[in-house]
Amino acid sequence: MEKIWDLEEHKQNTALLDDQGNALSYGELARECHILSDAAGKRCLVFCLCENSIGSILGYVAFLDSGIVPVLLNRHLDRELLGGLLQAYCPAYLWVPQGQEADFPGMEAVYRAWGYSLVRTDYGREYPMHPDLALLLTTSGSTGSPKFVRQSSTNIRVNAESIVQYLGLDETERPVTTLPMNYTYGLSIINSHLLAGAGILVTEKGLMQREFWSFFREQGATSFGGVPYTYEMLDRLRFFRMDLPSLRTMTQAGGKLQPELHEKFARYAQGNGKRFVVMYGQCEATARMGYLPPGRAVEKKGSMGIAIPGGRFRLKDTDGNEITEPYTEGELVYEGANVTLGYAERGEDLAEGDERHGVLETGDMAKFDGDGYYYITGRKKRFLKIYGNRVNLDEIDRMVRGHFGGLDFASAGTDDQMYLFVTDGSVAGEVRTFVSQKTGLNPAAFRTVVLGAIPRNDSGKTLYRELERYYG
Amino acid sequence: MTNQEKYNKAFMTALEITEGQLSGLKYQEIEAWDSVGHMGLVAALEDAFDIMMDTDDIIDLSSYEKGMEILSREEYGIVF
């Protein structure tokens, strides 16, 4: 197994610092990691219920560093959905906030550190795991789909190295957490900065809280990442009038930012000695695939840039041939060592090896300009990005129809705005509440529309195209 | 509508809650009042009173009561 980080190399540096003033150096982190991985005792599967805290990150680093395979989940994941995942994968342990131990009656906490507990499960079976498997992440994060992305330690290492290179990260960086660590983009910030020997500022507080900005200023945060919605919030917060001398870099991923907002942040960065870096990625490529060099952020607004170091983009037409003409739309294909092994949908799949061999069909439609800069133009598959989270519309349809006993229902929409189509107006409110609760996403993202009938073809297939006129 | 009614209505509409839930309500206490809900709430308050809130006041608006205290200040001058 390839090691991802050399924690001892930076042992004097601060690795993690939280908003309560707790800190852990790289040397201390390495020691804590050894104790924790010894407590687990063997290569096995561990479900981590994540938050942005030292304990949560410590568990992730310890497991990954010792060949134990973590599955990163949001600690607020709906209990019923979590139960389904536990049944499907039978992890040997859980790594959970101490306050959530009681949610798992009959399971024993065998070790506790930094507010987290290692809880031994008792499923009586463990699935064999392929030697290359290092980490499992969810594709959607919120619908509780059992579909995980299988990542290897090589995937994580090469992607972190590439990020360190194109962002020019070194040990003087101090990123502050603004994204969940179980979210591939949030995790890539942790991975790359630990590789650089930098100090990560860890907080559960958000942009809308005074405590976040106090922590930011007191500890001299140098960077943060955000999804499109983050930048909309910052714009509303009159971010451009804030005095943040320590800030060097803002990165953006998790969906396409409106070009006007892209330009606004790019111009602000240009005029204030900071960098604004738009990036493109997917969990299936570990995290990052493309980035827009900050020097061209204004000029190339709306573009997600070029392939990261070590990677290559190409476009494929409907016949599978490579597109060579600029401004021609095709499916974006990425090649690089960060392309992950494949998916897992159940415990048995953990034994599978590399199914992609370094090539990923992204499912995104794109074009490139005369300088070879790429622009995302659409998607092949039915999913939306809601506040940066990928939400699969077919899964929403299945969940709603399942819960409401075969209700006539269809979901569709645009990023940050999902439309829920029903024919029975009396359940519209209930459906909306259900979807909001199950996904853990703010109800503002969901609108209901009552139709006389859901449009279908003769074989009963929903005609989603015909729903577009209700939100287009 | 009185200012109190306008204020309450902004909360109830933005966070999809009832009047009975207003008193003592704090940020992140209910699912709807997360960062997304907060943006909607600030927009609703700005519309209702035709004001522009300062950054400091937006991030200080941590409860139902705190919001009234902020809007009562001189720069907004809303009398409840």
Structure notes:
The complex is a heterodimer of chains A (472) and B (80). In chain A, 25% of the residues lie in helices and 27% in strands. Chain A is an alpha/beta fold and 472 residues long. In chain A, the strands form six sheets. Chain A has an eight-stranded mixed beta sheet. The mean pLDDT of chain A is 95. Chain A has two domains: 7-378, Rossmann fold; 384-470, ANL, C-terminal domain (GMP Synthetase, Chain A, domain 3), CATH 3.30.300.30. Chain A has ten helices and 25 strands. Chain A has helices at residues 26-40, 54-65, 79-89, 153-167, 184-196, 210-218, 228-236, 259-271, 393-403, 428-439, and strands at residues 14-18, 23-25, 45-50, 69-74, 93-97, 108-113, 116-120, 133-138, 148-152, 200-202, 223-226, 249-252, 275-281, 288-291, 306-307, 312-316, 330-335, 342-344, 359-368, 374-379, 383-386, 389-392, 409-414, 417-422, 446-450. The radius of gyration of chain A is 22 Å and the shape is globular. Chain B is mainly alpha-helical and 80 residues long. Chain B has a single domain (3-72), classed as Orthogonal Bundle (Non-ribosomal Peptide Synthetase Peptidyl Carrier Protein, Chain A), CATH 1.10.1200. Chain B is built from four helices and no strands. Chain B has helices at residues 3-15, 35-49, 55-60, 64-72. In chain B, helix 1 (3-15) packs antiparallel against helix 2 (35-49). The radius of gyration of chain B is 11 Å and the shape is globular. The mean pLDDT of chain B is 95. Chains A and B meet through helix 6 and helix 7 of A and helix 2 and helix 3 of B.
